[in-house]
Design a protein that fits this description.
It holds the Pfam family Rab3-GTPase_cat. The chain is α+β, with helices and mostly antiparallel strands. 30% of the residues lie in helices and 24% in strands. It has one domain. The two termini are 28 Å apart.
Length: 86
């Protein structure tokens, strides 16, 4: 989450869920818009909502998102200790 926030300034939980857990993102099939970007390209807006599981009050993912700071992966403490590997 921290690396995602660092790589995508201004992102929201819904952006992370669409990338990390697509099954928890429910697209509205009729609400897709294509808008022109400032560089002349097209930007696709897909409208939808989080799954019921993700919308529940007190959802762990939502709580972790609130606490996560935008830290690039290269600056994060490794979770895997190579010295302990078999």
């Amino acid at each position: 989450m921290q690396a995602f926030k660092a790589a995508n300034p201004g992102c929201i939980l819904e952006d992370f869920v669409r990338w990390h857990s697509p099954s928890d993102w429910m697209e509205n099939e009729t609400n897709t818009e294509v808008n022109e970007t400032s560089d002349g390209g097209d930007l696709l807006y897909v409208k939808g909502q989080l799954s019921r599981r993700m919308q529940k009050e007190g959802n762990l993912w939502r709580e972790l998102w609130k606490m996560a700071k935008p830290v690039p992966a290269v600056r994060q403490t490794p979770l895997y200790d190579e010295d302990l590997a078999v």
